[in-house]
């Protein structure tokens, strides 16, 4: 799973530096859909794999959601976590209980909230007689929120000297090439390059990833048809009831265009790169291609512009 892979990759770099000590993982957007579906489970898996290896963790779920409401959401998610199949139920309950005790929710809204989080982490580390190895911030928030959060982290939530900072940013960011460049510049003023990890996530990826294998498995039947002589255009409609929040259009955006034309290009599968004539174009609301994807105030990015 993507989230696990990212966290494990981050820890891989910790291990390379032989850093041991306390690691705080701050999940921004901890009550959101992506966090509920994937990220908390990813963090739990990380805990299962890494806790025995010397790192000491705390997990801080954060969002704009009010404290009590957020705590309720996170408590429910933590309750629903699952263990690998080979873990016995009793042991699983024990592990979940441990993980729940290391995890907490807090509202993170103002710069003061970030400063308070920083103080609490320092207090926790001191109280437990540990030393702080580093902090990881995972941005599971819409791209328009990145800059403000980055500013607050830089000004008020950096770990002290000797400890590292890592931020995980989900692409795409910005709504076109220019705004993506602007955002990259902004982020670059708050974080050093080695502190930033950019990952590509879009819902629909799993389904989309099956398109090529599907074609391959049906080569005999489809080869004569799946080409520019017979396909006028390809439309990808993802039937989702959750709000797009500026994130999901990336799936269409990504799929429809050649990789090189995208600001987050190289991660896009080149499914439609050459043999397909007319990928799904930007469409206004009401078009089946836009469907639930259209977010008011935003529009599709058209790299041809
Ligand atoms: C972190 O250290 C404290 C104090 O030694 C301990 O109680 C806690 O279980 C540790 N957590 C992990 C994840 O190892
Ligand atoms: C980042 O934080 C440092 C230390 O507080 C500060 O000197 C610097 O101006 C900040 N960067 C920006 C772009 O605000």
Describe the structure.
- It contains 11 helices and 6 strands.
- It is α/β, with parallel strands linked by helices and 305 residues long.
- It has a domain at 2-203: 3-Layer(aba) Sandwich (Rossmann fold).
- The chain has a 6-stranded parallel beta sheet with strand order 3-2-1-4-5-6, sandwiched between helices.
- 31% of the residues are buried.
- It binds 2-acetamido-2-deoxy-beta-D-glucopyranose (2 copies).
- One 2-acetamido-2-deoxy-beta-D-glucopyranose is lined by residues 51, 56-57, 102, 128.
- GO terms for molecular function: glucose-6-phosphate dehydrogenase activity; NADP binding.
- Residues 26-208 form the Glucose-6-phosphate dehydrogenase NAD-binding domain.
- It comes from Myotis myotis (Greater mouse-eared bat).
- It holds the Pfam family G6PD_N.
Condensed summary:
41% of the residues lie in helices and 13% in strands. With 305 residues, it is an alpha/beta fold. The protein has a domain at 2-203: 3-Layer(aba) Sandwich (Rossmann fold), CATH 3.40.50.
Layout of helices and strands:
Layout: H1 2-16, E1 22-28, H2 33-50, E2 56-63, H3 67-79, H4 89-102, E3 103-107, H5 111-127, E4 132-139, H6 146-156, E5 164-171, H7 177-190, E6 196-200, H8 205-209, H9 211-217, H10 219-222, H11 249-256
Parallel strand pairs: 1-2, 1-4, 2-3, 4-5, 5-6
Bound molecules: 2-acetamido-2-deoxy-beta-D-glucopyranose (NAG) (2 copies).
Signal peptide: 1-16
Domain Glucose-6-phosphate dehydrogenase NAD-binding: 26-208
Keywords: Carbohydrate metabolism, Glucose metabolism, NADP, Oxidoreductase, Signal
């Amino acid at each position: 799973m993507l989230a696990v892979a990212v966290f494990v990759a981050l820890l891989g770099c910790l291990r390379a530096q032989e850093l041991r000590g306390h690691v705080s993982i701050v999940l921004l957007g901890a009550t959101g859909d992506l966090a509920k579906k994937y990220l908390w489970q990813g963090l739990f898996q990380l805990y299962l794999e890494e806790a025995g290896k010397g790192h000491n963790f705390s997990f801080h779920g954060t969002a704009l959601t009010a404290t009590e409401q957020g705590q309720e959401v996170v408590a429910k998610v933590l309750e629903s976590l699952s263990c690998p199949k080979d873990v016995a139920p009793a042991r699983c309950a024990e592990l979940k209980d441990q993980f729940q005790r290391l995890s907490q929710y807090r509202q993170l809204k103002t710069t003061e909230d970030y400063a308070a989080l920083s103080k609490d982490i320092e207090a926790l580390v001191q109280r437990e007689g540990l030393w702080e190895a580093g902090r990881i911030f995972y941005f599971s928030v819409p791209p328009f929120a990145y800059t403000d959060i980055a500013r607050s982290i830089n000004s008020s939530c950096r770990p002290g000297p000797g400890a590292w900072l890592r931020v995980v940013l989900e692409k795409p960011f910005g709504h076109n090439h220019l705004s993506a460049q602007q955002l990259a510049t902004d982020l670059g003023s708050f974080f050093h390059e080695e502190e930033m990890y950019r990952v590509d996530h879009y819902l629909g990826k799993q389904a989309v990833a099956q398109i090529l294998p599907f074609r391959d498995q049906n080569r005999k039947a489809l080869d004569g048809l799946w080409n520019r002589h017979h396909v006028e255009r390809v439309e990808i409609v993802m039937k989702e009831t959750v709000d797009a929040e500026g994130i999901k259009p990336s799936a269409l955006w990504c799929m429809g265009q050649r990789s090189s034309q995208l600001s987050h290009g190289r991660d896009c599968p080149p499914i439609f790169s050459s043999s397909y004539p007319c990928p799904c174009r930007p469409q206004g609301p009401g078009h089946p291609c836009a469907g639930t994807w259209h977010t008011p105030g935003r529009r599709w990015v058209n790299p041809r512009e």
